Amino acid sequence: MPESFHDLEDGDCVRLDGSFWRNQYGLNVDRMRVRRLEKQEMAELFAGTPERRAALERDWKDVVAMVEAMADPRLRLLCQSYLEEYGERFRRAAAARDYHHARRGGLMEHTAQMMRAGAAMASVYPALNWDLVRAGLLFHDCGKLWEMDYQPQGFVSPMTTIGELLGHITIGIELVNKLWRVLEANAEFVAPAQPPRELVREHLLHLIASHHGQKEYGAPVTPRTPEAWMLHHIDNIDAHLEMLNQTYAEKAQVAPGIYDYRRPLEGKAVMPLAKFKANAE
């Protein structure tokens, strides 16, 4: 490596060009050229392909729009303060390490799709408090900003002490309480309204605590309200559909239409039935 690159540190980025080939001794490189990436080039590298950047930008705009549409000012202001203060981390965090949306930006993908699913369900179950559900969808995995954050310049999601000691549910509850206390100085936030502000906070914390659905899956409590059950099932649906899509894209077929096993799905995935299409005359 050229002398000028002996001082590279974690997070530094370079472009390497050359002729790469492999033989019985391993990888070989001819005519190697190395240069440091410019600041804009690094930003584009970590933002992903143009198609992925566009998709993530759509996800962000959908999340922001659904937050702005909340009627309850307590929940709307809470969600907006979260996006304003932690939006950058939210946009790069992963939703998991292995199972689903385990990639840079995966948490925002997962959250945006869940919020779109919730919007589609709202007219079917109008009796639910959908402001509460949407806030729960946004905050249910917010603790992963510390448990599964990606480096600002890197493709690694390192383990953290707080993530291992507390887990994302506990961290998420603490974060909501912190943001809530700060908003107590906001006149719109504390204006008299129904249901009482403290009851709103308790129900939101319950959604975060119960979203895994069962204690054996890490939930401190099981869902006790319609909104909590709705959040749990929307989360479960989106996670499982993502895992199936990854299976179809990455696993080989062990028999016609049957894919090799992928954890944590139960059994081998089967090719989905194609949509109906009439035969041409």
Report on this structure.
This protein is mainly alpha-helical and 281 residues long. The protein has two domains: 3-36, no CATH class; 48-246. It contains ten helices and four strands, in the order ββααααααααααββ. It has helices at 39-47, 50-68, 73-92, 106-121, 130-139, 144-147, 161-183, 187-190, 197-210, 226-250; strands at 14-23, 26-36, 253-255, 258-259. A two-stranded antiparallel ribbon has the order 1-2. Strands 3-4 form a two-stranded antiparallel ribbon. The mean pLDDT is 90.
Q: How would you summarize the topology of this molecule?
A:
Layout: E1 14-23, E2 26-36, H1 39-47, H2 50-68, H3 73-92, H4 106-121, H5 130-139, H6 144-147, H7 161-183, H8 187-190, H9 197-210, H10 226-250, E3 253-255, E4 258-259
Antiparallel strand pairs: 1-2, 3-4
Helix pairs in contact: 2-3, 2-4, 3-5, 3-7, 4-5, 4-10, 5-9, 5-10, 7-9, 9-10
Give the C-alpha Rg. 23 Å
Any idea how many domains?
Answer: 2
Task: For the record, give the distance between the C-alpha atoms at the N and C termini, rounded to a whole number.
Answer: 65 Å
Mean pLDDT across residues: 90
Q: List the secondary-structure elements in sequence, H or E.
A: EEHHHHHHHHHHEE
Widest sheet, order of strands = 1-2
Q: Helical region count? A: 10
Percent of residues in helical segments?
40-55%
Structural class: mainly alpha
What's the overall geometry?
globular
The fraction of residues in strands falls at 5-15%
The biggest beta sheet, please? Answer: 2 strands, antiparallel
- Unreliable stretches, pLDDT < 50, 5 or more residues? none
Total strand count, please? 4
